[in-house]
Amino acid sequence: MQYIVTGYDHTDEGAVQRRLNVRPHHLEHARAAKQAGNLISAAAMLNEKGDAVGSVMIMQFNTEEELEAWKSNEPYVTQGIWETVDVKTARVAEL
């Protein structure tokens, strides 16, 4: 099953710096997911100043339990970077 995971960052004054501090751990986690075949694509959402304010990740897992296990270990979740996370079931087009 494929999923679009959209994480929206906190918006307080220190949010951007906290994200930058956690980013290396997030990227390491994403690389592991890519290597395991779970990460299809990802992007940062930017504000008008060019600062990252959230993330979109297209993921693939065999079960929702695997998705939840990934999410429970995602540094942007565990370190409180994402204020909210929206998950939608998806089907990625093969072009």
Automatic annotation (TrEMBL):
<dbReference type="InterPro" id="IPR051807">
    <property type="entry name" value="Sec-metab_biosynth-assoc"/>
</dbReference>
<comment type="similarity">
    <text>Belongs to the YciI family.</text>
</comment>
<dbReference type="InterPro" id="IPR005545">
    <property type="entry name" value="YCII"/>
</dbReference>
<feature type="domain" description="YCII-related">
    <location>
        <begin position="1"/>
        <end position="88"/>
    </location>
</feature>
<protein>
    <recommendedName>
        <fullName>YCII-related domain-containing protein</fullName>
    </recommendedName>
</protein>
<dbReference type="Pfam" id="PF03795">
    <property type="entry name" value="YCII"/>
</dbReference>
<dbReference type="InterPro" id="IPR011008">
    <property type="entry name" value="Dimeric_a/b-barrel"/>
</dbReference>
